[in-house]
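Researcher: Good morning. I'm working through a list of sequences from a screen, and I'd like to move beyond sequence-only analysis. For each chain I'm collecting a predicted structure so we can compare shapes side by side. This is the next one on the list. No need for commentary yet; just the structure.
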Amino acid sequence: MATYYDYGGGGNQQSGGSAGGGGGYYGGSGFAQQQQQQQPGAGSYGGYGNPQQWQQQPDQMQQQTGGYSNQEQQGYPGQPQQQQNMWNPAAVASFAAAAGAMNNDAMLDMAKQGATSFIQSRTAQMIPGLESGMLMLRNYFAVDNNYVKSKIQKVLFPFRSNHWKRLQKNPPQPDYALPNADENAPDLYLPAMSLITYVLLCALCYGTAKHFDPEVIPDVTTKCFVTQVLEVLVIRVGFHLMQAEIPILDLFSYTGYKYVGLSINMFVGLLLGHLGYGHRAYYITFLWTASAISYFMLKTMANNIPVVTAATGPKREVMVVAFAGSQFATMWFVSQTKFL
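Model: Good morning. Structure tokens for this chain:
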């Protein structure tokens, strides 16, 4: 079978079998049709069989391919596909800066609003005593930065203070100001935070001595809490014998300030423990903090116990000194100096 070239229609095509007549690009049949099917872009991009013509018509090809954009065409094989970066460090940094900018006042306002909405809801009213209890606790957590700072200074350096009377809203009535308006008002925020700090420092002390046990945290917490509860009950009995009234939460607040001194003692002991003076440094600091807490309790109880008490009860002066001395004894009892 002969093979020849046909120059019909001005095109240069190779055909097999019989010669194709007429014009057009592929006038023949057989092998020419197979080449037509194998041409890149034939029948897909407007019938441009010549690659040069396909490259010269970018606009028309974009219209016939549905107008894919560059980002959509990146998904085709043979082209690099860029993955979208879902982690935005700038957004994370801005969120962290915004979170760090929130001070304690803003956080307390949010907590107060949440507690108020919970109290006003029917859920709090369904539990007997929960509504009144939350309203009572809210007054003991109404603190701000200035109060916490001045209270810590007064607990650690009570000898510098000359004012111990609580501020009253209505002088004839026993309606006292909140802690954020009076540094002499009792609170539960500072005792709670200092207790947590002291427990964590005790756990750190055990850990640095390679004797840490997960039971250390609940053991120290239980020992401190039970000791404080017994102390509050004894003081409450003393007030009852003198026929003097005092809220029990006030006693938990006054007896809870000892944890501020205990935290400082443990911190100093851990700090100097690497030099071999941990045990000695703890007790040197203990002498100061225990004396300061005892003097603080002495002045506080002297201004809370009425001058005139029951004639058959214990003497007021004896009870004030006993309450102050109890702080020294309980601080020594709950101290953790075994591994300093």
